[in-house]
């Protein structure tokens, strides 16, 4: 049985390695196919262009696209046009996968004044790019009502060390009360595999967030302590990116999913250890 990762970047590759470890044959589509590691099979493909033939035994399709830049046009091309193009290719080749999962974003939600949101909460994207991602979700469910949408919060992990780098450089903005929701890259990849292979009757929508929404300044204080450095004085936050909200992972946990990194503490300690940094 084949798993197709349409958009086999960092997250897609990590999910693909987990599918392969579970015994699947994994085909990854990426513009730069040479970047896809064995045992995955890489195939050069631009999701917005002409797509290769899809293997007839494809059981799972993961659409994990990314925009080339942060603009409405780039997001529409990657998310809306790319998703439609993958679905068209499936129809073209007469392939009917058992599971289709679309990697979405919690950017489709608005500000909740610090309150809790879940899969039943209304969406209210604060950005044009978030609205385009929401449009892609609707397109997918209109054509495949049984498809799974996984809305991921801020992904961190190997190679995603923006906050660590800011703390090291002394340029981190602790903000004032800004909430952050996040998930380790490896847990995001595991959730993709879990929802497409281990859940008998998946819901159409899940939030991919860890167990602890937290103020950004608490994360930064933790990192500063681990790195043995000091944060600058607290200032009003210049950023509202991420929205003032707490996102619930209750539905994901109800499927039996278990986090390797249930909070930012375990996750960032693993990142720092992998980076060769001593921490207490």
From TrEMBL:
Gene3D superfamilies in alphabetical order: NAD(P)-binding Rossmann-like Domain
Ranges of residues in domain NAD-dependent epimerase/dehydratase: 17-198
Origin superkingdom: Bacteria
Family matches, as Pfam families: Epimerase (PF01370)
Cross-referenced InterPro entries: Epimerase_deHydtase (IPR001509), NAD(P)-bd_dom_sf (IPR036291), NAD(P)-dependent_oxidoreduct (IPR051783)
UniProt name for this protein: SDR family oxidoreductase
């Amino acid at each position: 049985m084949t798993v197709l990762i349409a958009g086999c970047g960092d997250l897609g590759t990590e999910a693909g390695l987990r599918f392969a470890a579970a015994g699947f044959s994994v085909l990854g589509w990426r513009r730069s196919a040479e970047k896809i590691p064995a045992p995955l099979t890489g195939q050069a493909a631009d999701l917005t262009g002409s797509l290769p033939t899809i293997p007839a035994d494809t059981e799972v399709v993961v659409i994990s696209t990314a925009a080339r830049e942060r603009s409405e046009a780039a997001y529409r091309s990657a998310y809306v046009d790319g998703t439609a193009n993958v679905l068209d290719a499936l129809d073209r080749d007469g392939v009917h996968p058992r599971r289709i999962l679309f990697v979405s974003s919690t950017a489709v939600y608005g500000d909740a004044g610090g309150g809790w949101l879940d899969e039943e909460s209304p969406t209210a994207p604060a950005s044009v790019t978030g609205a385009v991602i929401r449009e892609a979700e609707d397109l997918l469910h209109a054509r495949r009502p049984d498809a799974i949408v996984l809305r991921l919060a801020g992904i961190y992990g190997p190679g995603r060390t923006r906050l660590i780098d800011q703390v090291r450089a002394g340029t981190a903005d602790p903000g004032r009360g800004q909430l952050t929701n996040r998930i380790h890259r490896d847990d995001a990849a595991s959730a993709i595999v879990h929802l497409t292979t281990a859940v008998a009757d998946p819901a159409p929508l899940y939030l991919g967030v860890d167990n602890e929404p937290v103020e950004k300044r608490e994360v930064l204080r933790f990192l500063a302590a681990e790195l043995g450095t000091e944060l600058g004085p607290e200032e009003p936050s210049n950023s509202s990116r991420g929205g003032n909200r707490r996102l619930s992972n209750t539905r994901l946990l109800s499927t039996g999913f278990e986090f390797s990194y249930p909070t930012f503490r375990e996750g960032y300690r693993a990142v720092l250890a992998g980076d060769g940094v001593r921490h207490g």
